[in-house]
Amino acid sequence: MHQAARSEDNEMAELPGPGPRSPVETLKGGGQPLRPIHGGKQEGRKLFQYLATLIAGSIMAQSGMNLGWTSPVIPHLSRNDSFLPNLDPDGEEVSWITSLMALGAILGAVPSGKAADKIGRKIAIGITAMPFLICWVLMLLAPLGASIPVLYVARFIGGIGAGAACVLVPVYIGEIAEPSIRGTLGTFFPIFFSLGIVFSYTAGSYLSYMAFNGCCCALLVPFLVSVIFLPESPSWLVQRGRKADAYKVLRLLRGANYDVSQEIGELLEESEQVQVKEGGLRDLLGTKAGRKAIGTCVGLMWFQQMCGIDAVLFYTVQIFEEAKSSIDPNVATIIIGIIEVIMGLIVAVTIDRFGRKPLLVFSGSAMTICLGILGYYYKMKEDKKDITWISWLPLACIGMFNVVFSLGYGSVPYSIISELFPPETKGIAGSISIMTNWFLVFLVTRTFHILTRMLHESVTFWLFASICAMSALFAFVYVPETKGKSLQEIQTKLARRKKDRGRKHEAVEPKPLPLAPN
């Protein structure tokens, strides 16, 4: 008996530092603590973190299908043998079909963050499947009445699902991931988004309207089955007082040999902060860290969309047709989409190696060059010069534009959104960032045809190029580097003043240690 007591005392002595029982002991009713941390940062098992990210991220493929839907479908609907033979591809109806998804996404982003705080990340992510299901059913019903209003409603409702998913998935991934792979897991969000776009480009080009929309609807089934097994966010569980459940989830995500006591302790600290704060705009904007974070995220969203990426995505087929490229527009569009997926995978491997900031600066600079050259191609076309010898140039420019966009501004902003905010403001901050993003999607896609009519294609692409140049400067000057930092370390960095940073290399005279009593 006494020997057992001495053994337990020895194990307790190995835990770092004196004080009350660790959170794990509290959760487990005073049982034996897990293996302590021995210097440096421990690394947990990654398998279940990847699997959870794959399940949650797969709903983003539906968002990508909705976004890419117009590129192959609008030319199909404009043909004489479609159920809308009088549809003008350059008219107001097409402009609204294209842009109403973005308006729906704004509406979907508004309540999703707060809803996830109330009902949990897992249930909220699962519910996002419903707007997509309704969208595809309405798409399948539209030919029965040759109804453009039905397409309007379908696009708007699909947008609601896309907006909600864009808020919820990055937050969830940021809360389940270890710092060492948080950037990599965050890139799964845009990878699935790009996969959805590629599917729309491919299936929409070669399948009938009904078969294409039916396939999009059927692809919801794997998500609905797998989301049942999705683990809840441990951060949310702790905030709800379900500490034992949070312990089990962390053991699942990190592995049985990982000491979760330190992580549980950090989550308990965060939970105390959440309980004393409302998590509204006042908490978000009331601190220097909050203002810096929301300024960074809104700026990244602004530059991501104002570089013109969604104008290129929505109108890719038309751009190649009007450019009189020698390559089949549908094939060129599919190539563009595949390039985006491949580059997303490359970013997943490199983001935690090179960091967020260098990728953003490179991306903005290279996009400037690509759109500048594309604008010059259109200028030669407008001046009636011979462009047959460079008919491949639009594909090369748009392909390279997608490459460098995916390397930085296509992937990195979503990783940063999941990293910059504490739990109490993560919901509202994510909603504001994604609302900004989708409002700009609406603005760009709604005005792209207007700009090309007023300014011509050359000046329009040069305008986007100048914004890309500003995006590189913004990333270099304003965006903080978050590579390899814990969420608490990021908050400390955001709150630090410039004069404090200048002192970090100053010598600090150590205080003398107190003499031990005789």
UniProtKB/TrEMBL annotation:
Pfam family, one: Sugar_tr
Transmembrane segments annotated in the record for this chain: 50-74, 94-111, 123-146, 152-173, 185-203, 209-230, 331-351, 357-377, 389-408, 428-448, 460-479
Keywords for this protein: Cell membrane, Glycoprotein, Membrane, Transmembrane, Transmembrane helix, Transport
Localization of this protein: Cell membrane
Domain of life the protein comes from: Eukaryota
Domain named Major facilitator superfamily (MFS) profile: residues: 50-483
InterPro entries: MFS_dom (IPR020846), MFS_ERD6/Tret1-like (IPR044775), MFS_sugar_transport-like (IPR005828), MFS_trans_sf (IPR036259), MFS_Trehalose_Transporter (IPR050549), Sugar/inositol_transpt (IPR003663), Sugar_transporter_CS (IPR005829)
Residue segments, region Disordered: 1-40, 495-518
GO cellular component, as recorded: plasma membrane
GO molecular function, one term: sugar transmembrane transporter activity
Record flagged with keyword Transport: yes
Bilayer topology annotation: Multi-pass membrane protein
Gene3D superfamilies: MFS general substrate transporter like domains (1.20.1250.20)
NCBIfam families for the chain: SP (TIGR00879)
Similarity comment: family membership: Belongs to the major facilitator superfamily. Sugar transporter (TC 2.A.1.1) family. Trehalose transporter subfamily.
Protein name stated in the entry: Facilitated trehalose transporter Tret1-2 homolog
Species name: Ceratosolen solmsi marchali
Gene: LOC105363158
